[in-house]
């Protein structure tokens, strides 16, 4: 009996550029090979105080493997987000969803391809 093989054995499908409107600049570029499939929706969860100090941090992958890199990333996130009213930011190629509550800041970090609404569920 012939086997179809694992879908990872085949080459990835080609990239597509789709026109979405009547103008030449209305298009969507979709490239499946750019998005590696993963079950890991959340890359990190952070809780910081109102001075930007880490109260809790859990990283679920090796994007920032050392504590020094993690703290530098956390400082960058806090500096860019603690004075804004928005709840979503794109920093260092990652999607950052956050919420402040009195003197605490809650952050959920995912990949740049991740749906912000899915990440916001965790807050």
UniProtKB/TrEMBL annotation:
The organism's taxonomic lineage, starting at the top: Eukaryota, Metazoa, Chordata, Craniata, Vertebrata
Family named by the database record: Belongs to the adaptor complexes small subunit family.
PROSITE patterns: CLAT_ADAPTOR_S
Protein name stated in the entry: Coatomer subunit zeta
AP complex mu/sigma subunit domain boundaries: 41-119
Main function: The coatomer is a cytosolic protein complex that binds to dilysine motifs and reversibly associates with Golgi non-clathrin-coated vesicles, which further mediate biosynthetic protein transport from the ER, via the Golgi up to the trans Golgi network. Coatomer complex is required for budding from Golgi membranes, and is essential for the retrograde Golgi-to-ER transport of dilysine-tagged proteins. The zeta subunit may be involved in regulating the coat assembly and, hence, the rate of biosynthetic protein transport due to its association-dissociation properties with the coatomer complex.
Quaternary structure (record): Oligomeric complex that consists of at least the alpha, beta, beta', gamma, delta, epsilon and zeta subunits.
Gene Ontology biological process: intra-Golgi vesicle-mediated transport; intracellular protein transport; retrograde vesicle-mediated transport, Golgi to endoplasmic reticulum
Keyword annotations of the record: Cytoplasm, Cytoplasmic vesicle, ER-Golgi transport, Golgi apparatus, Membrane, Protein transport, Transport
InterPro entries: AP_mu_sigma_su, Clathrin_sm-chain_CS, Coatomer_zeta, Longin-like_dom_sf
UniProt organism field: Labeo rohita
Membrane topology of this protein: Peripheral membrane protein
